[in-house]
Amino acid sequence: MTPTSKVVGDLAIFAVSAGIDLDELERDPSGFDLPDSVLDFLRGALGRPPAGFPQPFTERALSGRPEPAPAPKLEPETLAALAQGGRERQLALSELLFPGPLADYLAARESFGDVSLLPTAAFFYGLDESAALPVDLAPGVRVIFELEAVGEPDESGVRTVMARVNGQLRPLDVRDRSIEVVAVEIERADPSNPGHVAAPVIGAVVPQVDVGDEVAAGEAVAVIEAMKMESTITAPISGRVERVAVASGTRVERGDLLVVLTPADAA
Question: Which of 129, 173, 252, 261 has the fewest CB atoms found within 10 Å of its own CB?
């Protein structure tokens, strides 16, 4: 489909859906709120047709309409990424065209990894108890998942799921989103904030610091119990404890905010 044929199609769809007479539209296009795709085409944003723009329709359609805002100048980093090609170019184009969805995608990728490796049915509906699920992580690297059992939910809506990974039995705590839990919503940590200490797994957390304490990077700030094992959560930076976001014994999910630190150089 050529740009011209697409614009003609957009204009026809606009006229039919709005109940506009095409002859009336042709006589006075400036009196209608034309689609942006049509106006961009008539301004030359998509190139110039071999026979030129239809006149006097073009002049009438653009008459009295404000000029579009100038395109923003691209940063040198963006231009360099576009010139590289491959994944860097894809990310740069996505940032320009779909900044919101790209941010959501990158956040999900940071939390859950590359889920594109999972088959569609397993991604949307989970493991099937009657069949094993092979997942190829890389050429020659295959992991086989098998669902053994799903436990009853606790008061927080968390179930213990027993699964086998390459034959080894592993228990996993999973939040069942289909269960409505009446509880205080726990704040989520901001991955871009180095002073936010987040829960690494689902479990019951016990803070080890109080507001005003000075901690060094790598020092323990909390202990979390998950799968009958305790793990120490350490400070990612040196600084002062500005806030303890959870009470002792609170059951948290991965990514929940536990402690807020003010960097040492800003304290």
Answer: 129
Residue 51 in domain: yes
| Domain membership flag for residue 185 | no
List, for residues 98-140, the tens digit of each pLDDT value: 888 988 888 888 888 888 888 888 888 888 888 899 999 889 9
What are the CA-CA distances from residue 29 to residues 39, 62, 175, 193 (Å)?
11, 8, 56, 51
Q: In this structure, how many other beta carbons lie within 10 angstroms of the beta carbon of residue 133?
A: 17
Kindly report the length of the chain.
Answer: 267
What pLDDT was estimated at residue 1? 42
Q: Break the chain down into helix, strand, coil percent, rounded to 5.
A: 30, 25, 40
Q: Flag residues of the chain having pLDDT under 70.
A: 1-18, 182-184, 227, 266-267
Is residue 151 within 8 Å of residue 161, measured between CB atoms?
A: yes
* 236 secondary structure, DSSP code: S
- Structural domain that includes position 32: 3-62
Other beta carbons within 10 angstroms of residue 52's beta carbon come to: 8
